[in-house]
Structures are given as structure tokens and as C-alpha cells.
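Self-study notes.
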Amino acid sequence: TDLKFLHIMHVKFLPFQDSYLSYFLFKGDDSMDKMSKEALAVKRAEQAFDRKRRTIGLFGGPLLAIIVLLTSITGLTPEGHKLLAIMTLVAIWWITEPVPIPVTSLIGPTLAVMTGVVAAKDAFSAFANPMIFLFMGGFILAKAMMVHGLDKRFAYWLLSRSWVGSNPKRIFLAVGLAAALCSGWVSNTATAAMMFPICLGLLTSIKDMFANSGREIDLHEYKYATGLMLMTAYSCSIGGVLTPIGTPPNIIMLGFLDTITNIHISFFEWMTWGFIAMVAYFIIAYLVLSHMFPADVDRIEGADTFIKARIAELGKWNRAQINTLISFLIAVILWVVPGFLSIAYGSDADILKMYNRLFPEAIAAMGGALLLFLIPIDFKERKFTLTWKEAMDGIEWGTLILFGGGLAMGGMMYKTGLSKWVGDSIANLIGGEPSIVVLVAIFSVLALLLSELTSHTAATNMIGPLAITAAVSMGISPIPVSIAVALSASLGFMLPVSTPPNAIVYASGYIPITKMIHTGVFIDFIGIACVTIPLVIYFVTWVVG
């Protein structure tokens, strides 16, 4: 009875990823008893911590904001001083979440207007930034891919390749590749939810194979099961760095660069950096996980049969899937054409300028997305590829509001002179000769640690403007530090609460919390030390010249 009640409470009232945990608890599988106790203990500890965190933030945020407002601060304009107090409140509430994060993102601009910092049109103009429509178009395209099963088709296609077969090491690699490549275009949460049952099916094949040979195994203590689940979760986060729309921190930092410094980074340029970062992150994760959680067999009997059965269930390509693929490819082509034009004609060519004026990234995204409502599946019945209801279910409005709120606060910091004051203060605090290595290292670690404890979107909104203004104040290009912040914010691998993919796979019961922390620490800091700093400093500064 208690388990049934817990299941109902999880499904009705708790976030999406928690339903996986409640599903396993509801099954009543005896092998889950140990995991159930650990998961419930962790869940209770999380809830107790969250309650204290939100209570402290609810009262501490306004109190600290008032203290900042009443404190005399030299070098700030009256508007900048008031904005600093508002930023204090917003930052604390983003971290502690006493109210939903999107609500906090609206509170900041609203208070800025009420206190006379800026006019209303200036405070809320950021919510119509083209970057938001780039993200919106990406959400709609991703939703169509999920509705019509294109993401599953790709994942099963990759897993069914002849080089994968039934080899556990290659299955491990293929699962990670499928998750990483999908999450470059689809949200990491949706990708994890798609890959989760695939991994469960593969692990069931392993259990059945051992059972047929007279050997019973407990998958909750089986190293390979832990590694496969962690590889799935980590790859979903790693793949997000591939494209600007892969994960919110990417597009947030691009928006800050455009708003604060008037530096525009194209979709193609980001992908050249994102691809290298994704490959490097993926190799690190694969090497660490395959070493820590090796398979003890050379072949998984039944794995290829399981994949073939899943492919058969998808059936033949239908009109909706073809339409979705066409719309997606049109958007991708429009996104990458400027890169090839730049290579062929130079970055100052008139044809490139005309193309960027007519088909900027946001228009490419919205063009591909809008085609989904225009290309019919059955014209006689007036059925089109995507319905408006389906599209609305796919748009993460909270993320768009949070993104707009972050851009609004960043823009106001620049207009009121607060960004310069903050940048100068950070530069003085660091001291010595301006060092891009020190700056990138500091903000990479800050973005990583903050994203482990709160939303990586909120973490990027807080760290991003500080990183850019500090770089400008020190006379350093803000591009390397901006890319470093975006990449580091995607490295939340230590805790189930760090990212939704972590929470989803943790609910399987195959990952002890200590194992996730242990492996997460390794990959997080190896990723920063061996990828972010050298990649961003040497590659990006080489591109900038």
C-alpha cells in the first residue's frame, strides 16, 4: 500500500524524472529492496535539503538585497546600485529556488522598471531577442522528431550496425554515441528518456543470457550495468555541446556575447568548436567508465535480437517521418551555409552579408519549424506534419523565459555601468598581469560547481555576464571565457540532482550514489583541465586571430 501511494504521489505531483524511481518501487521486485531503501534515503535527504535551501533563500534574498541597497558603494551610478541589489535578489533566488526559476527571471526586469533603473521597453525587449526564436524553432523541430519517432529510428539504426553486433564494449560505445548525437538536437532529458528503456532491454538480455547458462546475477551489483547507465546519462549531457540549440548554456552565452559585446558567433562556428569539445568529452567519459565498469563477457546473447525487434516495431518510413526529416534538414542546411560561404568567399564577402541578413539563425530555425505546419500528411483530411498542441507541448517556455530574463539582466548591467564595475572589481581581485588561463580556469570551475547544485541554465545566467565583463575589463577577448563557461556548465555529472539524465538513470537502481559521485568528479575535472582550457584558449584564439 505504501509503495502504491508513493507511486501515485510521484506520478501526479513530482517532476518527470521521479516517475522512473516510483515505477521501480511500484513493481515490488525483491531485487529492488536494497536500491529502494537507498533511493528513498537519498530522496528524503534531498527534500530536507531543498526545504531548508528554499526557506533560507526566500527570506535571505530580499534581506541581502536591502543590505546592498543601503550600503554606500563608490563607483556605481544610482541605477547601477539599484540594479546590483536586484541582481543580488535574483541570483540568490536562482540558486535557492524559493519560487520557480522562470518566475525569478521575470521578477528581475519587473523590479528594474519599478525602481527606475530602465524603461519597460528596455527591460523586456530581451524577451524578443532573435536567439529566443532560434531556441523555439529548435524545440519545435525536436518535438516533431520525438512525436514521429525519428530519434528512435536513428538510435536503433546506430545500434544495429554490423560493427556493433553483440560485443558489450561496442554496445557501450554505440549507446553513448547514439545518446550524444541525439542530444545535440533534442533535449538531454528527452534523449535520456528515449535511451533509458533501450538500456534496460539490453541489460535484461545480459541477465537472461547468464540465467540460460545457469548463472544468476544481480544487475544492481553488476559493474557493466552501472557503467552503461552512467554512459547514457553522461553522453546525453556531453552531446548538448555540439550545437547552439543542444543545451541552454550554449545559446545563453552566445546571447550575452551578442548583447554585451556585440560579438556574433554563427551556428557553424559554434559547431566547429562544439564538435571538438563533444568528441574530447566523449572520449574522456568512455575511457573512464569503460575502465571502471568493464564487461566480464565477450558477447551479449540476445542483444542484436532485441534491437532488431525494436526496429521491426517502428515499421516502414511514413509520410510524417519523411516530412519531419525534410524540415530538419532544411534548417540544418540554412544554419551551416554561412560557414561554407565564409570559406569560399571570405568573411567580408557581400554574398555572406546578404545571406546573414536574409537568413539569420533564428529565421533558419523558425523556417524549418513552420514547414511542419504547412507540409501535409493527408491533405484531403487537412492533416499536417505537426499540430499546434503537439508543438506547444514541446516548447520549454520556462527555459525561454529564463533565457530572456538572463539577457535582460545582462543588458541592463551593461547600460547602467554595473558590468564595468563588476568586471573591474573581479580584475582587481585576481590581480597581477591579465591572464586568460587564470580567468578561464576560475569561471570554468565556478560554472561547473554552481551547475552541480542548481539549474545549469540559471548558473550560466549568473556566471556568464561576470565572465564576459571581467574579460573585457582585463583587455582579454571574451570569446574563450564565454565558451569555457558554456562547456563547463554542461559537465554536471556528480549528483542525481545535477541534470535530469542523471536522475533518470539513477532511478534504475543500477547506480549507487557513491559511484556517481566518484566517476562524476573524475570526468568533471578531467574535462575542465584537459579539454576546456586548452581547447578554448588555443583553438578559439587561433580562430579569432
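Second protein, same conventions, sequence then structure:
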Amino acid sequence: KQSPSADNFTCNVPSGYQSDSAKSPQKSKADDAFSKYTAELFRQEAAASLLNLHYTLEDPTAYGITDYQTTLGSYTADSPKKSAAFAENILSSLQQFDAKKLSFKNQLTLDILSDHMALTKAGAAWYCYDEPLTPTTGLQSQIPILLAEYTFRSRQDVANYLALLADIPRYFSQIEQYEQEKAKNGRFMPAFTARAILNQCQDFVQNIDTHYLVTTFQQKINAMDGLSQNDRAAYQKQNRSILEDQVFPAYVQLADVLGKLQDSSINNAGLCHFPDGTAYYEYLVRCSTGSSDSVAALKKRTANQRKTDLLLVSDLLEANPDLERELNQELNSLPLLSQSPEEMLDSLKQAISADFPELPKCNVTVKYVDEAMEEYLSPAFYLTSPMDHLTENTIYINQKNGYEGIRLFTTLAHEGFPGHLYQNVWFHSQCDQPIRSLFNFPGYTEGWATYVELHSYAYSGLSDAAAKLCAANQSAILSLYASADMGIHYDGWTLDDTATFFSTYGFTDEEVIRDIFELIVAEPANYLKYYIGYLEFHDLQEEMKKQHPDTYTDTAFYQKVLEIGPAPFDILEKYTLDMQ
């Protein structure tokens, strides 16, 4: 695969800015220095974590990376301070670059890098607030999935995989010490969260003969060329031995530590009940959403959008009193009902071709979450492909959620086309700056996926009115979770407060409300990256329409925000609106 060239970067150049191909010698020198700096920074950071490196690059040597850590990294109470010190050094180095002398794309990267490092630097203030163990997105559930999907292209890959597997006990030991430090400082997770993760760890170590880290390893080893039967048997024996003797005991030990610590919980509700917890939540919201708006402003914006959506639902039903009945009939007769997930993805890929920029050819494999992990993982998720090998992609479906029909279709739009898979492949096929792959902006990525998920009802075969009804209803439901997140962690809602809020909208099942409350308490700001991210895209689109009423098209909007790629929303807005 050829590396993308600078010519692929097609952002519109703002008035007053020289194009890369027509820059002055001085500007070329500045760009060259900046490119060398970010390339070296990329090599340094990518080499610091083997798991991240493997999912970022298929061929690290092509990027000058030949030496790298073969561990899962480090996780201690001092990690935020160490990261902040590193970020401060980066910010100091970035001061040598004059933005006015840089090309458009380098100015963009400088802005993103500066913002990201400033936020990382600010993280030093929050000692023992971060939580690596959460029911759905915690390290205890994410690491095994990433290992199960770890691609074997060579013997070195197998050796690296086994090294990572064997490193789990050391890594978990650090996390256990961190959790003990959290408990000592009165920051330990709620007791119900500890019990949920404890149960998850116990479920993980059941039945090694059918364990997915045994079966997936065997499948990958058997698919490799150049291995003798003795080689395959030796590798499989080594994998099983590490699991039995090291990994399983590490999960048992983690469960034991959590069990002993669970009684030390002093707060079983929102972050605002901790000292400085309100300020920490504000910081977390900024990190999670990429929005620079205050929590108070986000609360108001969320409530306003919910009113708009519910009013649209009311207007649609008033205009057609039979719409709800017709919708049920349509949902029961859609052609997609007979489609497999793979066929739905093909349908989506074809349906979006008229509205969205053309995507390079790529494949997607649909897999299913192992039964042992169904209880703890998301309904579906996409694993990003390496930026130098974008053709092979994987989407996981969690069958426990029972998604089918229109719900499965819109979920696959979120994870596949034009959601995560599409956005990841399109951006990395266009962008020639590897440093951009290291930034995590969940507000952009999840906001985009939610934004196009709601749009995908229009591709499902539903009538226009029915599609609008479904999208508005789904948006309103998502807003309830967002409001509850802010209510619980910022305003201090109790379980009763949360139940009262949901009952206003007709949700009264006590067990369901308790599950929602406990999940939001365990994973603060998680729902906001979806909904606030969606609102930011929605508002940016409306602003583009306002500024360019005669020339605006949806396709032009999609292309512009995709070209700029993952970024905080004030930077995304700057490069789509202010600098046109």
C-alpha cells in the first residue's frame, strides 16, 4: 500500500492562505521542521505501547519504528502527573513553530496537538479520580477483546502477543495498587460497580477448554503459513499455559482485591459528591465530548433539543394520526428484515454512495461477542484497522441485546457505513500525518457515528414521515440519558431523582431505572460523547447552512468535517466556518 501523499489532503484553503504547492521557501522550511518534529513524536509515542502500535500500524518499520515496548504500559496514581509533565514539554516545544508560516494542514495539526496537550496537562490536578475499571469500557474487558483480534502476520506477532498476554499479571497488579490508593483517598468506585466487575472477572476464568482466548488463538495459528504441526502445537500449548498459570490467576486476584475494597466505598452516587468532584466532572465532560461549552450550557442545549424532537414527533402524529400504526406495519415488512448483518452493511454502503464522499475499497467481517463476555460489552463495536492497512475491518455484535430489524440496521450504520468504519477508513486514506492517529477525540468519533445513525433511518426503506419519527424519537431517548448523566454527576441526583425524571417521559420500570442509574454512576460522561457530539455536528451543520444558504449541500458538509477529521469541536468549527 502506498503511503497517502499530501495531494490527498483536500481541505478547502481559506482566503489569505497559500496552498502547500505554492508556498514560499520560508514556509517550506517551517513545514519541513514541523513535519520532522511530529514524525519523531509519532514514532516515540507509537512505540510506547505495543497494543496501540499493533492497532495503529501493520508495518511499523516503514515508519522508522524498529524498537518498541512489549508491555501493556503502566498505570499508577502518578500517571496523570507524568503525562502532564510530558505534555508540558511538548507544549514548550510547539512554541518554536509560527502558525502563520505553516501550511493549512500543519496549522490544523498544531492547533489539535496544542489543545490535546493542554488538556492532558490539566489532568494532573485530579489525583485518584480516573477509573480504569468500568463495567462496559474498562480495561478488564477491553484488553481480552483486543488480544482476541490481535492479527498474526509473522512469528514475531505471535511472540509479541504472548508477551502481552504474560504481562497481564504485572499490569493488573499496578491497577490493584491504584485501586487501593483510590480507596485510601476516599475515591473508590461504588460498591455495586465493584461487585459487577468482580463478577465479570469470575466469569472470565470459566472453562478454559472453550475460552475465546484459546479458540481465537488456535484459529489464527492454524491460518498462518510456514508453520509445522509441531510449531502450531507448541504455540497453542504456550498460550494455554500462560492463560492457566498467569492470566486466570490475575483475574482471580483482581476480583479478590475488589471484593476486599468494596466496603470502602463512601460514595455510591455521582462525582459531585466527592471533594472537587463537580470540577472534575467538568474536566471529564471536556475530554469526553470535545465541546468547550459549560455543563450548564450543555444541560440547556440538551433539554432544548429534546423539546424540539418531541414537538416534531407530536406534529408528525398530528398531521397523520395513523402514522404510528403505519410505522409498525412498515417495520414488519421492511426488506431488511430478511437480511444478514453483512447484507445490511452492503445495503448501507450502496445507499450512502449518493450523499457521502466515495470510500476506498475495503472489507468488513462481522463477528459475535463471546458468550462469556456478552453481559459486559457494548451492543456492538468497531475495531479500527491499522492506518497503513485499511482494507480489513471488523465489527462485533453482542447477541445478548437481541438487536434485529431496524435496530440492527441503524446500529450497523453507527459502527459501519457511514459511521465508525467509514469515518476511520476515509480519514486515514486522505491524511498523510501519522501523528493524527494517536489522538483520541470520542466526542467527534461517537458524535459522528450517532449523527449518521439517526440519519440512517432514511436509508432503511421507511417512508419519509416514518423515518423522521424514528430519528426524532431516538434522539429524544438519547437526550434523556445525557440529561441523567449531567443530573447525576453535576447536580447530585439520587436514584429517586433519576426515577422521577424518567417517569416524566413515561419510563417507570424500577429495575431498568436502577440499571441506568448504576451504569451512569460507574461511567461518568460516557453517554455525553454520543449525544453532545451529535448535537455539535447538528449545530455545525445548521451554521453552515446559515452562512451559505445558496451553495450549501449535505455532501459538502460531510466532506469538510471528514477531511478535518477527529478534533475538538471549537477547532472543527474554526476550520470549517471561520477560515473559509
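Instructor comment on the second fold: The mean pLDDT is 92.
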